[in-house]
Amino acid sequence: MTVELDGFGVTIPQVVAVARRGEGVRLSETALQRMAASRGIVERLADDDPAYGVSTGFGALANTVIPPHRRADLQRALIRSHASGMGEAVEAEVVRAMMFLRARTLALGASGARPLVAQALVELINAGIVPLVPEHGSLGASGDLAPLAHAALVLMGEGAVLTDDGTISGATALSRAGIEPLELAAKEGLALTNGTDGILAMLCLAVHDAAHLLSVADIVAACSVEALLATDQAFAADLVAMRPHQGQQASAANLRAVLSGSSIVASHRHDDDRVQDAYSVRCTPQVHGAARDTLRFVSGVADHELASAIDNPMVLPDGRIESCGNFHGAPVAMAADYLAIALAETGAIAERRLDRMLDPARSHGLAPFLADDPGVDSGLMIAQYTAAAMCAQNRRLAAPASVDSLPTSAMQEDHVSMGWGAARKLRRVVANLRRILAVEWVSAARAIELRSPLRPAEGTAAAVALLRSQVAGPGADRWLSPELQAAEQLLVNETLVGAVEPVTGPLT
């Protein structure tokens, strides 16, 4: 599949397809025409007509007038000076998504760049060239200046490129792919760097992952309900309808579907002296549901950004070239922080369910730590430590970055979004949540099997069967880390929901 890039109507699934599956990209004829018209406005700009970044310097140097014969030099110097990041290389999927989204903005025809600039980005994507973008450098101020500059440097035949065998120069990468280095013209260096595409790339990928993991969380929680001999009565449709949050309704419906027909749940429905389950079980739809509602809001922010023109200055169809603040990362930064909080809480309640399963005082008849020979064997004791460590890290990562502005550029950029930092920590929260859920899944599956001869629901049985395709069942202590990683990989591959839905019907 090739994604046609018109500028408008880009979707999160398309971002994921380009970033992770290596889908190709092409520019529509309409986009090429829009960009050509926008470029004509820049080229008709009078020599003495000041326009930020076209005939002036950048940031605090905006009042410095640049003569016409130096304006191409200005753009090259911008890329070189702004490519000042440090640290480890950003993940290839983020860089691919970032370049795709920058090409999307250029395709809107509001940046004044020639069509060949967007085409050059598309050629990098289609050739599998991944510029080396260091992790540190962006404040989400005038967008992701440093990360985008590192990508643009490769377009110029400079900088560095990631390969499977290490790094090579941008010049070598272009030569191998048969791509000519790009000679920038007026406004084009600015058009390549003045956007929030790195932040948005990470947010789109996180939204995709979060949507999947919240369904996983409901399935795994259902397994824990059976493992703990808990009840499904708190998830009844008429009860949750009395607090009509959309996310809560969806989570409770998933739990009911996955637990439908459970002999384990039915076995103690009428002769159990417990009045109610602990919050970590009983309140699962409320917590998972709140995370779902947060995700819905954040997805809306991402959708708005995917339809936005992010640049400065903007080239308008009536011939104006106007400075604006559309490059500011606040909308994306706050959304990333909000989603990090929601996913951290999803992991927190999962860790509490996990801990209950391993504690013989609270697990209702299960062996301590689900060990085969308690005392000699430690079972899953330290697996819970691992989950707790990631849960604790998520709590720290949930502290918002978007409230932590620092002034830059001699106070011209005196309020910045810190959106890049917000998105980077969101990626870590997503990864931690996936691993926490993997540990809960491994534990709940073992506990369900230890409840034999009681039979689980068809939905939870399907979840256990999938896990058993990669992870052995109860037994003596063994090297546990590979098993936890195998469970995590099943979640990375997004196979759990597909394994359960044939027996439960579609989950949300």
What is the CATH third-level topology name of the largest domain? Fumarase C, Chain A, domain 2
What helical percentage do the residues reach?
40-55%
Shape summary: elongated
- What is the fourth-level CATH superfamily of the largest domain? Fumarase/aspartase (Central domain)
Would you state the CATH class of the largest domain?
Answer: Mainly Alpha
Which class best fits the helix and strand makeup?
A: mainly alpha
Number of strands: 9
By DSSP (H or I, 4+ residues per run), the number of helices equals: 20
Radius of gyration from CA coordinates? 26 Å
Characteristic terms for this protein:
single chain, 508 residues, mainly alpha, Fumarase C, Chain B, domain 1, Fumarase C, Chain A, domain 2, 2 domains, three-stranded antiparallel β-sheet, two-stranded parallel sheet, 9 strands, elongated
